[in-house]
Every structure is written in structure tokens, then in C-alpha cells.
Specification:
Elements: H1 11-16, H2 28-49, H3 55-65, H4 68-78, H5 84-95, H6 107-125, H7 129-147
Helix pairs in contact: 2-3, 2-5, 2-6, 4-6, 4-7, 5-6
């Protein structure tokens, strides 16, 4: 088994701690800000579920899955299964301009990964947890394929 909801913290409970934001009117970069945190937390939880290890090893495993290149590749996996709304959110994030591009990444990769993060943030803030779990299961299968 690659992913199951029992492997993560109860994101539904976290979502209930604060009032729901107006996601429809939220900027794409704000959605990406949330999505970055949600994605990294899921990946860290997944890595820890594989067993205890030295912090350096945990960090290195995390970096393989939490980076612009891998997140851009994730969209190759997810795009065929996106709804129209999800596609629109991804494109909003992809087309948003943060004002900078990391020097070691192409602009296309950076924008695609920002679109990915916006999509994850949107789903989380809309409390579409089952959809997130489905996406994460697809992503982690790809991550294990890339590692092996």
C-alpha cells in the first residue's frame, strides 16, 4: 500500500479549527502558499511512515519529492484526471507571476510547480480531502517509481 488516510494526521480536524477562507476570491499565489505547506506535510508524513531514519536521510528523501521539477512532473500525472474547475485553478497558479524565478529552474518548471501548489491549496481549503488523497496516491506511486 502506497498511501492511505490512516497514514496522515486528520486534516479534516485542522480544517475545522479556523473559518473557511473565500477560496474563489483568493489569489493564485495565496492558494499556492497553502498548497506548498499541505504538500510538504503529506510528503513528510509519508516518509516518516516508511520508518525512522537519520534526519539527513529523511531530508534527502523529502527533497526528492518536494521540489519544482518533481511537482511539475506531478502535473503530467494529474492533468488527465482533473475536472474543469481543477484545470482552471492549476492554470491560474501556473500563470501567476510571483516576481521571481529560482536561478536553478526554468521559468516553465517554476510556473508549472506553482500551478500544482495552487491546486493542492485549493483542494485543501475547499475541504476536498478525498480528492487530495487520490492525487497523493497517484503522486506517491510516481515518486516510488522514480526512486526505484
Amino acid at each position: 500500500m502506497i498511501w492511505s488516510s490512516s497514514m496522515c494526521l486528520d486534516i479534516e480536524k485542522i480544517g475545522e479549527l479556523f473559518p473557511a477562507p473565500d477560496v474563489k476570491n483568493m489569489s493564485a499565489l495565496s492558494l499556492a502558499f497553502a498548497g506548498d505547506a499541505v504538500y510538504e506535510l503529506f510528503i513528510r508524513q509519508y516518509i516518516l511512515s516508511k520508518g525512522d531514519a537519520r534526519v539527513k536521510t529523511l531530508h534527502n528523501d523529502c527533497v526528492k519529492l518536494v521540489n519544482a521539477d518533481f511537482q511539475a512532473k506531478c502535473m503530467d500525472i494529474l492533468e488527465p484526471v482533473l475536472t474543469e474547475t481543477e484545470t482552471a485553478v492549476f492554470k491560474r497558479g501556473r500563470n501567476a507571476h510571483a516576481g521571481h524565478t529560482p536561478k536553478n529552474k526554468s521559468e516553465a518548471v517554476y510556473h508549472r510547480s506553482t500551478g500544482f501548489e495552487a491546486l493542492i491549496g485549493y483542494l485543501y481549503l475547499k475541504k476536498e480531502y478525498e480528492r487530495l488523497e487520490y492525487f497523493f496516491s497517484l503522486i506517491l506511486r510516481q515518486g516510488e517509481y522514480d526512486e526505484g
